[in-house]
Amino acid sequence: MSGLNYGNFAGHNNMTSYDVVTVSYQNAATIKRYLSHTRFDKNAVQLMVVDNGSRDGTVEQLQATLSAHQMRLNKDNLGYAKAANQGAASGHQAFIVFINPDCYAETGTIDRLVEYLQDHPDIGVVGCRVLNQDGTLQAASCRRLPTFWRVFNHVTGLNRLGLPGINKAAKCANKSTAVEAVNGAFFVIRRDLFEQLKGFDEGYPLHFEDLDLFARCLSAGYQIYYLANQQAIHLQGQSKQRQDLIKQWKKQGLKRYFQKHRPRWEQWIINRLLV
Questions:
Q1: How many Å apart are CA 172 and CA 223, to the nearest integer?
Q2: Best CA proximity match to 110, nearest among 223, 17, 211
Q3: CA 217, CA 125: separation in Å to the nearest integer?
Q4: H-type helices in 188-239, by residue range?
Q5: What's the pLDDT score for residue 155?
Q6: Sheet strands (E) in 100-141
């Protein structure tokens, strides 16, 4: 196959071009629709899909649609962070778009997110409204970084009573604002910042690698921004077996996050709660 044809889009509308990175694993049900949507990304120089050893037909769909330089086929599941770093390393544009294979941005959304970053040098990461398939807002569209009390309130449901939890979409749903974190399923980051931070921490199996990256972005002096006037749709269907595995990955990821970013007393409690 000749692959998806992006054309010569460098300098389109005087906007810097960008690379698109997607990590796939067992996404045969969504990858075809995702690939058709990438055709609308007029400033994308390269799409790189890194597959983590799929066995469900995902690879065959990639091979039927993309050229060899647009995909990397890992034999095994190396984890999201490592695969995403591989994809980012394949490009060289000033901005990197990370988008899941079950996430579909509206036409022009990526261009506008990149343009916003280009116009605001103090912002390192930008995200937007992320919707469920039924049009409702996903709670993780804009988030707070984890602390012990935020995690406690989130897990116990006290955040529904007004106490601060991790997700804060209800408060910033319709207001573009600086936040501590956006939805990891779809965001744009400056390449120089991503490389300065040495990419995703590959010690995370899956989940919390995005929050870790955002925490380091803030520590480096950059803002993270949520654009309420742009949106994407994110499908989140998982099998029961897959859900159980993800719960374990989330526990491991949360422990690692607290080990890296939170005081020891919080680490101690979290390690004993998440057994």
A1: 16
A2: 17
A3: 8
A4: 191-196, 209-219
A5: 72
A6: 103-105, 123-131
CB 206 within 8 A of CB 246: yes
Residue type, 273: L
Interval 37-96: pLDDT, tens:
765 455 667 899 999 999 999 999 999 999 999 999 999 999 999 999 999 999 999 999
Whole-prediction pTM: 0.89
More confident site: 118 or 4: 118
pLDDT tens digits for range 151-170: 888 777 777 777 777 777 66
Q: 95, 103, 87, 98: which is closest to 37 by C-alpha?
A: 103
Where in 154-259 does DSSP place strands (E)? 177-179, 181-182, 186-190, 223-234
> Domain 12-145+172-244 carries which CATH code?
3.90.550.10
The set of residues, in sequence order, having a beta carbon less than 8 Å from that of 114 and lying 6+ positions away, is 15, 16, 18, 43, 95, 97, 188
Smallest Cα–Cα separation from 218: which of 160, 179, 183?
179
Alpha carbons 20 and 27: distance in angstroms, whole number: 17
